[in-house]
Amino acid sequence: MRTTARAPHTPRTRRTRRLALALVAAAALPLSLTACSDGGDDKSKDQDSGADSSASAEEKPGPSDEQPSSADNAMAKPFGMACSTVPKEGSGSFDGMAKDPVATAASNNPALSTLVAAVKKAGLVDTLNSAENITVFAPTNEAFDKIPKADLEKVMNDKAMLTKVLTYHVVGQPLSPEKLANGSYPTLEKSKLTTAGSGASFKVNDSAQVVCGDVKTSNATVHIIDSVLMPPM
To answer: Strand order in 134-139's β-sheet?
Structure first.
């Protein structure tokens, strides 16, 4: 039997084999890194998707977030003991007044007939009806009755004085019940009036009681009061 002699492993042969193994390993390395990278990206995408879902769930408002509180509902309605005298239906009702500008709306309320007559005599109907986002403190007929007849007639027959008195009842911004709690506001007459109170009890200039507040018209908030306000003279 013949035996085949193996070639001796020379240093050059060993270097050649090592170089071949290194090239094979180098070729396999990018494939391994790509596989790891793809797996990591998928995992990262899964985590990002989960995070987005959690964020979406946290941001989505629940039923309680969308519903106004009972306190907000209560404050959105007119308040005060005299509100019960306002007509339930028709143009003089709360719903009817909300459709008209303030001077027109007041003319449909029988309890404000003296005020409406004074506004017409002073030539302020168009001024009040064309204003926007104002507040009117509206004295009732009984409020005018508190003024001695001679004094009332004197004011009613003096247009400049009547205009001064009436414009003192107008503030150039909406005054919600919250703003009546403790306020000082410039009027259309230029002098300031003050408000104070809480809940459903408020006074103007510490003298006139709000008897039906937060009545809405198309351009104004009306607070009906039981006394006529007198500007500083």
So the answer is: 170-171, 134-139, 220-225, 208-216, 201-204, 192-198, 182-186
- Percent of the chain scored above 90 by pLDDT? 65
Cβ–Cβ < 8 Å for 164, 198:
no
Is residue 101 within 8 Å of residue 217, measured between CB atoms?
yes
Instruction: Give the integer Cα–Cα distance in Å for 20 and 144.
Output: 113
The CA distance from 108 to 97, in Å, is 8
Instruction: Give the number of other CB atoms < 10 A from CB of residue 177.
Output: 21
What count of other Cβ atoms lies within 10 Å of the Cβ of residue 111?
21
The Cα–Cα gap between 216 and 213 comes to 9
The pLDDT score that the predictor gives to residue 14 is: 54
Helix H or strand E segment including 214: strand 208-216
Q: Kindly tell me if the per-residue pLDDT of 191 is higher than 60.
A: yes
pTM over 0.90: no
- 79, 213 Cβ separation under 8 angstroms: yes
Which residue, among 130, 134, 109, 104, has the nearest Cα to 119 in the 3D structure? 104
